[in-house]
Structure formats: structure tokens, C-alpha cells
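Issue: ligand-bound run for guanosine-5'-monophosphate - logging full I/O for the record.

Environment: standard queue, default settings, no custom constraints.

Inputs:
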Amino acid sequence: MENSCLFCRIVAGEIPATIVHRTETTVAFRDIDPKAPTHVLVIPVTHHADVVALAGDPAAAADVLAAAAKVAEIEGLTAGFRVIFNTGRDGGQEVFHVHAHVVGGAPLGPMLARS
Ligand code: 5GP
Ligand code: ZN
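Outputs:
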């Protein structure tokens, strides 16, 4: 655990979150600022900064993907959903504990915002 990491502190229960699914190796909780009717963040319990670091821990990566699929099932996203890993500056990543955004519950529109 990294004391300065917001999501490590959510894993530890030091910061409250609405948890929708938990395994030994993952936690899934509702995003505080949802961008879709369902917007859940899935994180590994162990601290990895981003998806590149997570890729170096294949077991944790597989667990995060399995948890994302489970969240979609729990949330009833039978019409589809997106799993997004924002990465680095161009990716708009704000929290540097890797998280999969699971978003759905309505048509999500174009894949990318156009400027
Ligand atoms: P990123 O931009 O890093 O991909 O996404 C970070 C996400 O974390 C954002 O969607 C933001 O709304 C969410 N977030 C930031 N702080 C908190 C918090 O304290 N609790 C929860 N549940 N979500 C948060
Ligand atoms: Zn962390």
C-alpha cells in the first residue's frame, strides 16, 4: 500500500467508497463523478501505477479483467459497455493507481470526443 495513493486508501477502507464487487485481489467501486448511468472503477488491490505496470503482473491483470466482466454482469449491462484504461498525460489519467473504467447503461456515442 502507498499511503499517498487515493485508491490504495480506498482499498484499505480509509476513504469511503460505494463498493459493488470485491475479490481477494480486486475492488470495484462507483466513480465519484459518473459519466454514464453505470460508471464503476475496477482496481487491483496491489499498487500498479498504470496499465503498462499492470501488464507486468499478468495474474493481477487477468483478475482486473475478470472483475470488470463481473461488474458488467452485476450491473445488468446486457446491451454492452466499455472498459477504459486512461493512461498517462495524453490519455487523461488523473489517479496513478491503475483502474478500469466500466461504463454503460445507455448508448455511449462515438468512441472519442472530437475537438
Ligand atoms: P482517470 O482520469 O485517472 O482515468 O480517472 C480517475 C477517476 O477517479 C475519475 O473518473 C474520478 O471521477 C474518479 N475519482 C477521483 N477521486 C475519487 C474518489 O475519491 N472516489 C471515487 N469513487 N472516485 C474518484
Ligand atoms: Zn495505490
